[in-house]
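OP here, attaching both records as promised.
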Amino acid sequence: MPGVSILELRKVWGNRPLVAAAIGVLLQDETGRVLLQRRGDDGLWGEPGGALEPGEDFLTGARRELLEETGLVCPDLALLPLPDGLQSGPELFHLYPNGHEIYIVGMRASGTLPASALEHAQPDDSGETLELRWFALDELPPLSNNANRQSLNVLRSRAGLPPLPLEPVPPAPPVGNYLMDLRKLVGPRPLFAPGANVLVTDEQNRLLLLRHGGTGKWTVPGGSLEPGESFEDCARRELFEETGLRAETLEPLQMFAGPRYRFTYPHGDVVDNVSVLYRAQGISGELTPQDGEVLEVGWFGADELPDDEELSGRLIQDNLRVWKGGQSP
């Protein structure tokens, strides 16, 4: 079943804000200059990158976008480690010249190329790239949006430079049922479901699992983010909604995305998970399972976890493997 691209969603969703799973590519030359493209839509500058194709993982998307927008291949291209690699939140709202509104969520990749590589650049004929140029981090041109400013601030911080100020954005819409609203328009076809999951342990170092009402299988607290939420905001909200618990701090451990994490619900809806796993610390509150959503809760030691077939898909299986891998022998 083919996934739904962001262009297809626009046809049924109109200009209203969409959540776009996207990748930004930060390339630097031997002197530390960064490669920027002048965009065809607004004439301003930004890092190469764009929205993922349905089912695509972030590194594959980064290589594809770089090739399309510059004609270049970067052998050492890699995803930035968390938290620098993450991009999400209300400040990443963008209004395109054509009226489309978007919230960018996803990852950043980085790599290096010699300055001379630009001599061989051949952007495709889509018109997305008007010009390519290397820029010193302290001599940047007018930038297209806050996603680019935040990405370049990662590099500026490493170079000891102050952050670029972000442009003001409208307030994020109230939390609703974004994914459910999209479902009414596109049916069961695969949709990107950016979100977050949370590892919660008790004083005996047992992991909290929930038996989910929609699947009947065990999972960890978590879910999909709403437009304007950050991954961490989503993790905090879902943790409280599903369990009544709050976390003092949430440590991002790993991003899970790509074809391995496509999941089909019992009723037939398909999602491509784009999920950040967090470790919760400083837990407070009384464990109160969400009525209807959570059928049962349990605390499990590393040797007591349910079998894989009792877990809610590969995402949760791999979440638990990350937790088990971090346990002391």
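Record two, same layout:
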Amino acid sequence: MFIKHANGSITPQETAELIAFLQQEDNEDLLPLPGEIDDIPAPTMDAAATARVFQQLSAVTSPVAPPARRRTLLRRVITVSAAAAAVAAAVVLLFHPDRQKPVLASVSTGYGSMKKVTLPDGTTVTLNANSMLQYDSTGWQPGSREVWINGQAFFDVAPDAAGKFMVHAGNKLTIQVLGTRFNVAARTKGIQVVLNSGKVKVGLPDNSNEHTLVLLPGEMAYYNSGDGQLSRQQADTLQLTSWKDNQKVFRDATLADIAAFIEEQFGAEVTFAAPQLSHLQFTGTTPANDLDVLLNILTKSLDIRIDKHNNQVMIMLAR
């Protein structure tokens, strides 16, 4: 039944019998020996089969207290063979029903605001405006540090978390931290990972090597939501991460680029009275979370007129 459970051919009745057998205290001598399992040809377990094993076990089991005798039994199960590895993993869950499911804690920011968060391992995360950070508040421990980010955040990862810290950006990219400080911007049009120091490995959810980039300081990984391509680029780290110090650095930015920033950062809609205005360029530094100051600087620097009413911003030619 071990092999039948692994390849998905076991019936619900046989599954129940297998679980009842494992829950008995005196059946250790009846477990198959490693050689006996190895002599039976078994298919390679894929992700779908593994998920099916866990689903079947979850459907027919209920929480029970794990006696010491069953731990000895469990060790025998784990050693039987690679063919039954998925079943052994499922049995681990069966005999540890008290293990809590992930409970995601959420921290979010509104338009025009920022927030600094300290994670349980000492890692600090600075959240930009219009962003959300989530992490497991119950299972945060060595080997299982994971966070999810939508929006923009700057991570300063605690040294003891190096190599054990994963960031999931916008459900499109996975970032493995190898000891670092880096910026993640997961927005609708694409995802941007900028490395300030250390090293990170950025990849698509399929985890294939051909879709993985290892970044060095001063580099950026960019995922284009339109075509699904992941590319490496050189990055101006000061320009792209200065927001965490409440500064926004613009270098030859067009008003169209600045309008996109205003919409993401402040939730305001920007329109142009004349199309050619969107091509005007601006270079300078402004506060990252003060829209009125930004608009005032643009007005004086580009000789334009800007009217703001509620969440509507109109950019016009100067009179």
